[in-house]
Specification:
This protein is mostly helical. The protein is 79% helix and 0% strand.
């Protein structure tokens, strides 16, 4: 038999991150986001990093030219 989830605990858990984010300065949020991005990038292969970088360059060029 499957145990029922505690809805009250789930509701409180979902509020934790939002409440914390409201109390952080924009610089602190950027620092945390950068740390997370670096951790995700560390898991990627060099070929995948290169592919993503090329996509970014192409997107910037399209934006500069005004093409969607």
């Amino acid at each position: 038999m499957r145990k029922k989830p505690n809805l009250h605990a789930q509701a409180l858990g979902s509020l934790g991150g939002r409440a914390r984010a409201k109390n952080l300065s924009p610089d602190e949020v950027a620092k945390i986001a950068s740390k997370g991005g670096n951790a995700r990038a560390a898991k990627l292969s060099s070929a995948e990093l290169s592919r993503i970088a090329k996509l970014g360059v192409a997107a910037r060029e399209r934006k500069r030219k005004g093409v969607r």
